[in-house]
Amino acid sequence: MRQSKLLKLFVLPLIVAFLLAAPILELYPAKILGAQGLSVYVRIEGQDNTIWRGQVTVSTSDITADNSGEPYHFSHPTALGALDEASQSGGFPYYVTDKYGALFVESIGGEENKGANGWTYRVDYYNPNVAAGRFILSETVPPDVPHREILWSYGSGSTSPLKILLSDTEIDAGDEFRAVVSMYSDDTHNWSPCRGATVHVNHHSYVTGADGTVDISIDREGIYEVFAEKDTYICSDKTEIMVTAPRLVRHNLTLKINPAGGGTVNLMPRQPAGGYLEDSEVELTAIPAASCVFIGWSGNLSGNTNPTTILMSRNRKVTANFILFDTGNLTTIELVEIDSYVTSVSVGSYPAGDLANIPTDLDLQAAYVVGSEGSGSFTLRFTDISNAGDMKLYKVIDSGWTEFEDMITTDDTVELTMEIGSTIIVFALPVQKEPASFSASQLDISPDTVQPDQQVDISIDIANNGGKVGSYEAILYINGQIEDSQTVSIPPGSTDSVVFSITRATPGTYTVSLGEEAGQFIVVGSQSSDGGLDSTSKIVIGVIATLVSALAFLLRRILGQRHN
Question: Percent of the chain having pLDDT more than 70?
């Protein structure tokens, strides 16, 4: 039982480590070569650059584990042995460990394995399913022998390589050559055109088309390094080309003014008769004619920066675009942006007093008539606008007023975008309205004389004499005491009536106060046969009458007794 447990604790992990380390393990090679060895080309591609490339000769290899110092002997020329020879020739380090029970490459040139990414190798671009220490050069297949190239690369195991072929490696300056980029498939073991690969020629870059090709021209002599790369692929090997027979290259700058007569363009420096020298910088300044505005460049220049520069790396064609922009004597209006199909814009003052259907809540500040031709839209900027943040803009077409929703304002500028056509635009401020102000009048008490518990209607008119809607609380006082209240909301310039209905049971005169108005009503009692005495008086009189009758009876009894 104890032996079984020890087997699980020690032997099984060693077996797992052995399997993990198998890609480069070869302890007992089956064949010993002569001293001459085998010559192969080795290329080592790191994450961002090529660590080393060159020809090496591989025979036997003695490799020591860096972590333990344990030596390992390989009697064949192997892919791992090729890495060891390249390290010695190129002077770059690589690190192997036997902590898993066998040798394992952990880094090359200081680039360590991390996560799912690490170092893998290929032989003649083929990705063997054989450990690097077990792959015997010019013996193990596939790929077919003889083996010519060992490629070590950093990435995932599924990263495929690129290959670049050039139509010529010695060209004349200015002539074109073609680069063909292919990508390798580990599924079919074939090469196919690589679209969208970037071909680097020193500091210049080109992108391949759908057929994996791109045509390149270099105008200066020298030796250039060419290679291809693409995301998630191993970059191609680097190839040198020689460009000879330099020549003085000149390019012509062709100018066009649109429309004709819209302005001119100054060039600095002026264009020589034979054109500008290769890679000269030329400054262009557009100068509009009277009542015209420069709106931008087209052709080999874009945007509306003025002045601007252009690099004469080839023949160039540039168009300076102008439009008619007539503002008369108005100097505070600018044309900011404009669509390319707008041909003219004009702005003139308009008498605001001649406008129809002017909203009563607006205080008109200025009005302009804007005309334009072509198609699309344009943006005007009005400067020196007082209270620009409070300003409202309206367009008036056929006496209809529509507020501009999309406009940009600062402290003193307003920008608005308009469509092609003719319209009137109006700047206006909202009319400042007075707050609600109330007055009460026409107090009415009906009827003014009632019987007990008969209803009396009391009404009064409340007028809002201010400029804004407001609420008024009407409080009814009877004999100086609050009887009832009502709150009413009244629009400016309107009058509303407030009505109270009350009753009183006790006869008498009652004073009424409502707002600042006063009045009265009377409650009268009905006259009965007892002279209108109340019940208490009647009880008192009854008691007195009873007492008088009793007293008279007693007197008669007393007097009768004396006579007897």
Answer: 89
What is residue 230's DSSP assignment? -
Q: Cα-Cα-Cα-Cα dihedral of 21, 26, 27, 33, to 10°?
A: -160
Angle at 201 between CA 197 and CA 204, to 5 degrees: 85
Position of tokens 């004499």? 465
Q: For the beta carbon of residue 461, count every other beta carbon within 10 angstroms.
A: 16
Query: Any idea which residue has 């390798």 for tokens?
Result: 184
Separation of alpha carbons 283 and 274, rounded Å: 18
How buried is 144 (Cβ within 10 angstroms: 0-12 exposed, 13-18 middle, 19+ buried)? exposed
User: How does DSSP classify residue 9?
Assistant: I
Residue 237's closest CA among 227, 246, 229?
227
User: What are the tens digits of pLDDT across the range 346-369?
Assistant: 999 999 888 888 888 888 888 999
How is residue 128 written in tokens? 């063997």
**Radius of gyration of the chain from Cα atoms?**
54
Cβ atoms of 183 and 233 closer than 8 Å: yes
Distance in angstroms (rounded) separating the CA atoms of residues 444 and 447: 9
Q: Rounded to whole angstroms, how far apart are CA atoms 288 and 324? A: 9
Q: What are phi and psi of 337, to 5 degrees?
A: -135, 155
111-112 β-sheet, strand order: 94-97, 104-108, 111-112
CA-CA distance, 520 to 522, in Å (whole number)? Answer: 7
CA dist 285 to 221, 268, 271, 288, 335, Å?
A: 34, 8, 14, 10, 18
Q: How many CB atoms lie within 10 A of CB 386?
A: 11
- Supply the DSSP string of 509-559, one letter for each residue: EEEEEETTEEEEEEEPPPP-TTTT--HHHHHHHHHHHHHHHHHHHHHHHHH
Distance CA 361, CA 355 (A): 15
Residue from 42, 107, 102 nearest 74 by CA: 102
Do β-strands 316-326 and 253-258 pair in parallel, antiparallel, or remain unpaired?
A: parallel
Q: How far is CA 250 from CA 276, 280, 400, in A?
A: 5, 9, 61
Measure the CA–CA gap between 60 and 453, rounded to whole angstroms: 131
C-beta contacts of 339-342 below 8 A and 24+ residues apart: 339/374, 339/375, 339/376, 339/377, 339/378, 340/295, 340/296, 340/298, 340/376, 341/374, 341/375, 341/376, 342/372, 342/373, 342/374, 342/375, 342/376, 342/377, 342/378, 342/420
The helix/strand/coil state of 452 is: coil
Question: Of 48, 93, 82, whose CA–CA distance to 227 is shortest?
Answer: 48
Task: Tell me which residue of 217, 235, 227, 218 sits closest to 47, measured CA to CA.
Answer: 235
pTM above 0.90, yes or no: no
> At CA 19, angle to CA 17 and CA 24, rounded to 5?
100
What three-state secondary structure class fits 293? strand
Q: In the chain, what is the greatest distance between 2 CA atoms, to the nearest angstrom? A: 191
Stretches in the chain below the pLDDT threshold 70: 1-36, 246-247, 526-543, 559-564
Candidates 57, 54, 56; CA nearest to 33 is: 57
